[in-house]
Amino acid sequence: MENEDNLSDEFRVHVVIPSKPSPILEKRIVFKVYKRRWFILFVLCLLNCSNSMLWLTFAPVADQSAQFMGVTLDQINWLSIIYMVVAIPLSFGTTWMLDTLGLRITLVLGSWLNMLGAVLRFVSVLGSLVSAAKFPVVMGGQTLCALAQPLVIFTPTKLAALWFPEHQRATANMIASMSNPLGILVASIFSPMIVGTTNNISSLLFIYAVPAAIICFLATVGIRDSSPPTPPSASAESSTSEPFLEGIMLLLRNKAYMILLLCFGSGIAVFTCFSTLLEQIMCVRGYPNDFAGLCGGLFIVFGIVGAGFLGLYVDKTKKFIEATKVNMSFSASGFSVLYFMKIAVAVVCSLFGFFGFSIYPVAMELSVECSYPVGEATSAGLIFISGQIQSVIYILLLQGLTKPMADSPFSTCSAGDASLSWRVPMLVMAGLCSAFTCCFVIFFHTEYRRLDAEAQAIGKKPTLTACQTVTSQTLTTRQTPTTSQTDNTQDSDQKEEQASG
């Protein structure tokens, strides 16, 4: 590409590569980062935001949507659950596509599926269709949007690894990942505002279809390459070094990764249940849809703020494990008291979002660190699949545990079958959240494999995790060379340098 150097920043690292013929072989490599990485990140953020808006379009207005389409609340919930059902089998193909076919094909395909699904949903509410056909057509459009979700949501970790340098990866992953909850925030606040009455469902679907079409155009025309001409870091050169199936087998044998897969997947499931069922839980206790949307919005806003601080902190300190464990502990504590806090519900939702929601991008980076050199899309994608599988199980379980309420004087639910008691389901979900958090805090330990590989490539000491520091200090004390040994080593190094000269 012409004048590419004018559109990039470059930095030099001193890489020492050992070889048998010469003990001291030095090679200077120039890493470049290209400004168009920010455009690709921008398009991914818009696409991620749009897809999540389409996911939870109906959840904040479940009662009105059920009346408009002439279906039950359980059927409306399936408009959200279909995302998880479709994502489970498709995710394996998506991880292969990202690591094999590349970033551009994946993003363009995802943008087209997202746009077609949004348009089909709007077509369903036009006057030419009979009432009985509305829900099936909406479900068809929602299914197309669900097909796009894994193509979009797996991409932030891969984009950060291919286009961003080591000191910007966590921040780039945070920005791209947090655009997904930003879309949920838009849906939580604007869906109740736009709908008002059931006659405005058609306006709601049209408003959400317009940005999907614009984003599809930007992705198709604007994204030209899957990776930059030159890598931004040492690990980017080997980003797809492990074949897909071999990478899967390596992950299944990685104890630390399997703990993260199970425990953080449970956290994703709790968030999904919270976002999908919040309006139904709140209306039984007398809260209007607007307040439920506000609580969902506060949850997302504070989660994005927390992710911003945490991403910058982790980029500087590289304390992925400590940050994840501390935040998971606080979020589990906040969720455990959520159902019983009648006055400060909005405050608890804000704290739950600040500590719980903010760990998603950090955990995705941690999955890459503990599984390197497996491809980023594979390691992050399996965790998302785990979250989707557990989400389906949790939602079906929680719905099965609800009981009809004989008397609900404070209920503001519109639908006749919406007066259900959520006390037992909320207690079960809090228990699951606390149990998996304790499991993660106690049993998860790992090395930062990608950071260590990059450190060795440029001749630096490996990055130590907190649990390795004491051991390394002990080994250092035992293996400290004597003064004479140090002098002999320095003399031999000088002789080798003179010989190579």
Helix and strand topology:
Blueprint: E1 8-16, E2 26-34, H1 37-55, H2 62-69, H3 73-100, H4 103-124, H5 131-153, H6 155-163, H7 169-195, H8 201-222, H9 244-252, H10 255-284, H11 289-317, H12 320-336, H13 345-357, H14 359-371, H15 376-401, E3 403-404, E4 420-421, H16 423-443, H17 449-457, H18 466-478, H19 483-500
Helix pairs in contact: 1-4, 1-5, 1-6, 1-7, 1-8, 2-3, 3-5, 3-15, 4-5, 4-8, 6-7, 7-11, 7-14, 10-11, 10-14, 10-15, 10-16, 11-13, 11-14, 12-13, 12-14, 12-16, 14-15, 15-16
InterPro entries: FLVCR1-2_SLC49-like, MFS, MFS_trans_sf
Biased composition (Basic and acidic residues): 492-501
GO molecular function: transmembrane transporter activity
Protein described:
There is one protein chain. With 501 residues, the protein is mainly α. It contains 19 helices and four strands. It has helices at 37-55, 62-69, 73-100, 103-124, 131-153, 155-163, 169-195, 201-222, 244-252, 255-284, 289-317, 320-336, 345-357, 359-371, 376-401, 423-443, 449-457, 466-478, 483-500, and strands spanning 8-16, 26-34, 403-404, 420-421. The strands form two sheets. A two-stranded antiparallel ribbon has the order 1-2. α7 (169-195) runs antiparallel to α14 (359-371) and α10 packs antiparallel against α14 (359-371). The longest helix has 30 residues, at 255-284. The protein is globular. The two termini are 39 Å apart. Mean pLDDT is 77; it is low at 1-6, 10-28 and 466-501.
